[in-house]
């Protein structure tokens, strides 16, 4: 926390932080100092804050920094504006929306990252280097050459040197999955998946009239012998796999299993959709399945899970030119293209190192949160210590749907196993997402509430009827 010094402005004190060069963004240092002063009582509701220009001069920073600090303090419900009368310390507000959403799988905000500065710098570089007219028009080829080259660079940890012409830029992984289903299957075709899989697969398949069938999985993922048998019996067109930090189970498929599944795909002439959003967040993951059967596998890597969902950019690797063209035709039927401006921003961040720095921060924060979850949910925590979510086995006296309802009554949103089922649900578990709550202490409080709920029995949480 910043050290504070006090000076006088008439009869009102002003609390100024000593801005530290290595203390993170200056506007956050100022906002943190204001919050500290409110917490320790140095500032109380109704106290008037100094005019922004005066504070900027006293701190020797520009006016924009102070404006952003005040805006951040307002976001934290610390300040309120009273028009021409100025800015005042706000009275405490009752929390009417106390729900903690642990159901949405998003990257956690890393410490010390100033998204405003990242966006401004990234977009300014994009506008310096790109023709604004090109950023505001249609791009029908699956991304510009520069975006596809950036995608190949981003995928280098998985594949090494990659021909950028094999990379397609898409508006997110869900669009890529849907387009692959349209391009590689026909209505009524079977798609094989693990018993607990990403719900977006089922949503797209159902919408397009395809059938999802579950193949038995163990702790290492889909069982090869069961896949081979299902291929003989069902004649599927696609197999969907999420082999690294699987959603929802958080398991990572070992290399030997990946090779076995790739071999079956070749023998049975079935295509694999390898949805791999968490590979770069994992600790020493095995090579993608696509490296063992490149002609059989379409590989998807989205930036939504390791950087930020707002970019809406995913990269798809497809080796066959004919299949890439079919994929693009399918994609254009409902999504047309990734937004050129956000794709260009993603490219800029990849090329200038911002994306790597942001991802490293997300990885550090995710691992801190996993340690917290492991400590607070001891005995039932299932996770490798990385990634964005935890698969929590429930005691026998809770069902997943019961527990999710009880958690909701306690102000916490979690996702029961039924939401991920592609067949009969045999597992009694919930998924807890660790990145969707910005403040780590609020996440800790939510996990503590879940821990207490786990130790209680359902009859203690029967809902009132009104």
TrEMBL record:
One of its GO terms (molecular function) is pyridoxal phosphate binding. Keywords: DNA-binding, Pyridoxal phosphate, Transcription, Transcription regulation. Residues 24-92 form the HTH gntR-type domain. SUPFAM superfamilies: PLP-dependent transferases (SSF53383), Winged helix' DNA-binding domain (SSF46785). The keyword DNA-binding applies. The keyword Translocase does not apply. CDD domains: AAT_like, WHTH_GntR. InterPro entries: Aminotransferase_I/II_large, HTH_trans_reg/aminotransferase, PyrdxlP-dep_Trfase, PyrdxlP-dep_Trfase_major, Tscrpt_reg_HTH_GntR, WH-like_DNA-bd_sf, WH_DNA-bd_sf. In the C-terminal section; belongs to the class-I pyridoxal-phosphate-dependent aminotransferase family. This is DNA-binding transcriptional MocR family regulator.
